[in-house]
Amino acid sequence: MEQQLSLILLHSPRSVNNEEPLLARVPPTKHHYNRTFFKFFLYFVLIGLSYYFIISSFFVPPPLSLISLDSPSGNVSSKNCDLFVGDWVPDPTGPRYTNLSCNHIQDFQNCLFNGRPDENYLFWRWKPRNCDLPKFEPSQFLDSLRNKWLAFIGDSIARNHVQSLICILSQVEKVEEIYHDKEHRSKIWRFPAYNFTLSVVWAPFLIKSDTSSSSGIQLYLDQLDHKWTDQYSNFDYVVISGGKWFLKSTIFHENDKITGCHYCQGRYTDLGYTYSYRKAINQFHNFIQNSPHKPLVLFRTTTPDHFENGEWNTGGYCNRTMPFKQGEGKMKTEDELMHDIELEMLRKHGSGSNIRLLDTTAMSFLRPDGHPGPYRNPHPFVGVKDKKKVQRDCLHWCLPGPIDSWNDVMIETILNRNGKAEI
Ligand SMILES: *[C@@H]1O[C@H](CO)[C@@H](O)[C@H](O)[C@H]1NC(C)=O
Ligand SMILES: *[C@@H]1O[C@H](CO)[C@@H](O)[C@H](O)[C@H]1NC(C)=O
Ligand SMILES: *[C@@H]1O[C@H](CO)[C@@H](O)[C@H](O)[C@H]1NC(C)=O
Ligand SMILES: *[C@@H]1O[C@H](CO)[C@@H](O)[C@H](O)[C@H]1NC(C)=O
């Protein structure tokens, strides 16, 4: 099963010790460098941290003039509605699929199956301030994307997102997996009746990286990752994202020289992750602009995590059962900085470009209740004496869960563009 794979890569479900990097968040301090930890860290980085991270956004994206899908209330979205500024409102209808009706949920995100006791987090819907955003209609979406190819490019949060989409769509038509790579990180599926193709491409940095070196992750800041660029001309729609992998210990290469690093214990000049992330987005951006192929490219902004009172490896947890109200909670500095870089780089484009922001950061930030927490593994507390030691995941999203709503804003953005211009 594909799901097992990512999990194993990330962390073996059995050993829930704190050394397993659930999150690659690197503490700001450069002291106390510990070789053993570093090796351990690299090891896991190589194997699988790939899974985490992702999307969201804040602030005001370029105004999208929206033509709403048929809203159940008959309230047609207003033009210039900002889809990404809004509130979570109660939604008694609940999720569009269950752990039984969808078998594409990764074990680590199958929260109800794993014994999460509260269910209130399933009964909310994203409501943009100035318009209604109906939950998208799967058959209508498939019909609109007949003969098209939609690709998700990124890390484990991109996978989380594509699984949410598949769960919703597969309630209408059974999906066929037609390709997976050796590690089951990149996959292609088809919805045969619609000839609609869906991919996820594993490229956590978007730029070229080498995670096999014993001296740390080597990042090539002036080269893109061929894994996605080689396939780019196939795609009609692209949802691309970057983010948390840049927080790992990384060594920067530019023009065939080492130019610096992030968190490398003084071996090179520490330029920080903001340096590498900015370069990566710049590269990505230049590629999209210069490519003669013009799919609609949605850049999904960084996904905030909700570890409280610690990080993934220091006892952080996320046990809230309600969304934040406006003004409640505070986004972490890394998430804010990454989001700022995304906006800064992508705003330069302006209109006429085929890049759109899928600015899910703010809406996601409001959902501290949407993560697996301890329920990344089945019945995590059974037979455990020290509950605090149970590893938490406060980064990925439960399925079903708040990430299902990313699809509503994504599809609104895709179909809106679809109505205005040919791809
Ligand atoms: C599915 O979720 C329900 C809770 O809604 C839970 O009781 C049940 O055990 C789960 N079953 C499977 C097969 O995941
Ligand atoms: C449509 O929805 C908006 C936002 O919820 C609301 O302000 C407006 O009054 C609604 N319009 C109609 C015609 O229902
Ligand atoms: C199916 O879609 C692909 C593009 O994704 C297209 O190349 C192909 O011609 C389509 N097949 C049919 C039978 O329409
Ligand atoms: C969350 O966990 C903390 C620490 O264990 C506890 O103090 C708090 O009451 C918990 N909150 C909820 C909503 O369970």
TrEMBL record:
Please indicate if the UniProt record lists Membrane as a keyword. yes
The chain positions of domain Trichome birefringence-like N-terminal read 79-132
The UniProt entry, under InterPro entries, shows:
TBL (IPR029962), TBL_C (IPR026057), TBL_N (IPR025846)
The record's subcellular locations are: Membrane
Q: Which residues cross the membrane?
A: 40-60
Q: Where is the Trichome birefringence-like C-terminal domain?
A: 133-412
Listed GO CC annotations: Golgi apparatus; membrane
Q: Which GO terms describe its molecular function?
A: O-acetyltransferase activity
Per UniProt, the keywords (alphabetical) are: Membrane, Signal-anchor, Transmembrane, Transmembrane helix
The membrane topology term of the UniProt record is: Single-pass membrane protein
State whether keyword Mitochondrion applies: no
Identify the domain of life.
Answer: Eukaryota
Protein family per UniProt? Belongs to the PC-esterase family. TBL subfamily.
Which protein is depicted?
Answer: Uncharacterized protein
List the taxonomic lineage.
Eukaryota, Viridiplantae, Streptophyta, Embryophyta, Tracheophyta
